[in-house]
Amino acid sequence: QENDFFWRSVAANNVKDDMHIGAYQSSTEDVWRWNDQNERVAGYNNFIKSFPIPGNGNCSAMLTESPSAQWVNVDCDNQKLPFVCRR
After folding, report:
1. 86 in a structural domain
2. What's the pTM value of the predicted model, to 2 decimals?
3. Residue 47 lies in a domain
4. What CATH number did the domain enclosing 20 receive?
5. Longest C-alpha distance within the chain, in Å?
6. Least packed by Cβ within 10 Å: which of 16, 22, 54, 87?
7. Which long-range contacts (CB under 8 A, 24 or more apart) does 5-10 make?
């Protein structure tokens, strides 16, 4: 459901760059969580098969050029990307 929302947002806003999707990995645990409610990313994720790569960053981004809207992990501080918020 979240991935569909992200993808519709990309299409509606003609986003050309990769996009932050609001999941992060805590520096103290090997768990991915959603920024909004600190809930675990559980059950479904769309990380590319070889991702997340340890040490590559603790934020998530959607590859907008990927027809399957796959995710990668990126450096939060050095990779300035557009983002989407959901109410």
Report:
1. no
2. 0.75
3. yes
4. 3.10.100.10
5. 36
6. 87
7. 5/84, 5/86, 6/62, 6/69, 6/84, 7/62, 7/69, 9/84, 10/62, 10/64, 10/69, 10/84
